[in-house]
Amino acid sequence: MSRKYHIITYGCQMNEHDSENIAGLLEAMGYKHCDDPYKADVTVINTCSVRENADKRFFGTLGQFKKIRKNDPDFVLAVCGCMPQQPRVVEEINKRFSWVDIVFGTQNIAEFPRLLEERLKTGRRMRSIIANNPDITEDGMKPVRMHRHKALVNITYGCNNFCTYCIVPYTRGREKSRALPDICKEIKGLVSEGVIEVMLLGQNVDSYRDAAGNTFADLIKAVNEIEGIERIRFMTSHPRDISDDMIECFKTCDKLCHNIHLPVQSGSDRILKRMNRHYDREQYLTIVDKLRKVCPDITISTDIIVGFPGETEEDFEETLDIARKVRYDSAFTFIYSPREGTPAAKFEDQIPDEVCHERFDRLVDVMNTISFEKNQEYKGNIYEVIAEGISDKDDKAISGRTDGFKLVNFTTDKAPEELKGRKVKVRITESKTFSLEGIEVTE
Ligand code: 5AD
Ligand code: SF4
Question: What CATH topology corresponds to 382-440?
Answer without folding.
Answer: OB fold (Dihydrolipoamide Acetyltransferase, E2P) (2.40.50)
